[in-house]
Amino acid sequence: MMVQCEICRISLSENDLPYHTNGKRHLKNLVRYQSTLKPVGKTISNTPSENVEEASKPKEDTKDPISVKKLILPSCSKEKDDSITVPTKTIDSETSNTNDSGTKRKELTPDKRNQDISKRRQKRKLKEETPRTPSIPFVYINNLVSFDHQVINFVMQVEQTQNEWVKIKWVLQDVEFTFGHVIPGVKPVLYGSSFSGLAFKTSDIDVYLYDSRGGEPDRAFIQRDGGIIYRFRLFNNIIRIPNARVPVIKATHIGTGIDLDISATSGQAVANSRMIRFLLSHDWRIRSLMMLIGYLGKKYTLIGVNKFSRYSINLLIIFYLQNLALPILPPLSQIVYGATGRTWPFAFKENNFLLINNNKQQLAELFMGFFEFFVDFTFSKYVISTYLGEKIPEEDMEKEDILDKMVYYKNFIEKGGDKIVYRSICVQDPLELSHNTTKGITEKVLSQFKFICTNALQIKQTVDERDWLIEMLKMEYIPPFIDKVGNGPIPFEVKYDFEGDDWISSVKQSLELVFSTLGMDIDWNYPVVEDDTKKTKLSPGLTFSVETRKFIFPKGLKWSINQLKAGNYNLKELNKSLMEISETKHQTVFCAQCFVSLDQPKLLRITMKNNCTHRMFYRMFPILRSTLELLLNHAFLEINKTSNDSKSTE
Question: What is the rounded CA–CA span in Å between residue 240 and residue 242?
Fold first, then answer.
């Protein structure tokens, strides 16, 4: 049974109540609560305790009507028998526009009110665009044992323990208590990696609100009734995303600190999780591979928003195991099935797996074989279908023989459903066949995946098998445009439509405006001469360094630059937007040394050298490089416009 502590404003079970009332948090809140109670009337010193209530009663003829209520502390506090006199002020309609001191409140003008609303919306949007980035568990690898034993120890270090499962059950109880007020008989169902057995200790959980009365809530449930989660104060960091493909509520459970996604329309995702869990029971090596490669994916930041998901990585592993010389898994079309009236398959044949597993490869061979399989894979030309267990050329997806093999997909598009979306990579969902699980992945993320595959094969060739995991965990992703870490300058070219011979002063003025707009401090040195060996002559240039502590990279700058491109901003408004973003978060110092020279007419050659933590440099440099041309030309136009206006006034 659930009870509520009125002091801490939380709900908890009766079994947890004694531990809560003796805890530091409750006692601290109790002291804070008692200190906020202001005595009413005159304070009488040395008054016996039995006369305190009589002495503190207010007079009946006071100007401000005061009503005194006797509040008995709830049973969850230590001082059960004590009563406290709490004053509550009744507010009349005549005094509703006045504060405690009797002065009238300052009413906001419509413009000021709209400005405050827009600021709140912008902060809310920034919060929604900033994804949660949970840390991954620390692991220790012993290179004195075999690779198989290393992986077994690794899995034991990162997997969820019994303690995490107790916390998850607590979260599910609070979800049931909260949403039971709007969905009577709701049963929270766990899905995702926590259900399938692939979750890490620090992983968040996915919860589906199953309506035991039948059916599932409509898509508008999150927007219409999701606000119930604010009422009981069991969760914080709440973000409602009603317009997503699967509407969810992102929140953090206060009691355990576990992040969770609550959905009311993800019944198909529950079937996906059940299928993955069933496949893991077929061979112990499958779970070890998925845990290990999933951990490396999180370490290399391959998994996240607009990147791979854990589910899509698992589908790649399944596809790899289906295409071995001796397959470990069959095509999933032999396992899954549906029912009359259902759009997609949702169940699977547990008793008959339809495949005799004769594969005896070692786990180390399977692990490195995954990277070898995908290192030269042409993702852009094929659809990766675990349902059929084969790669399908993109142009063949609409052919009759392929559609006949995917009856559910054929029936879906014949009824007017959307066809599968093709991107730089297409990994088909084996149950919801019209869904590309990797449609948000860009070429940049795909090149990062290929880079990791290439480096894994280099590690295989250069070190002993017992050191593979250690070297893989030490490996660090370096973007392709930077050859070496921290060594040498990085040149790039920028178009700049300047006029006249004095390009140095023009560029200097534009650069000052650009970097001040970005909230970066610029430190000029004297003009120097660089020896250009190609032209065998001296070319003048500018040297300077830039530095910032403002949080404008990467998402804040990208969003604001898009506004600038659309014509909604000028540089002054861009600066204001970036400064509002920077107030929400701070970051490590970004500092770089720069050299600018005139390479060709209307073409600047900018050389930038890392002078700070290389991780921050790699994150910020590509964005700065891609937007510098746009910013410089905007600055050049604004400077010319200002100078022309000043001449006209003279």
Answer: 6
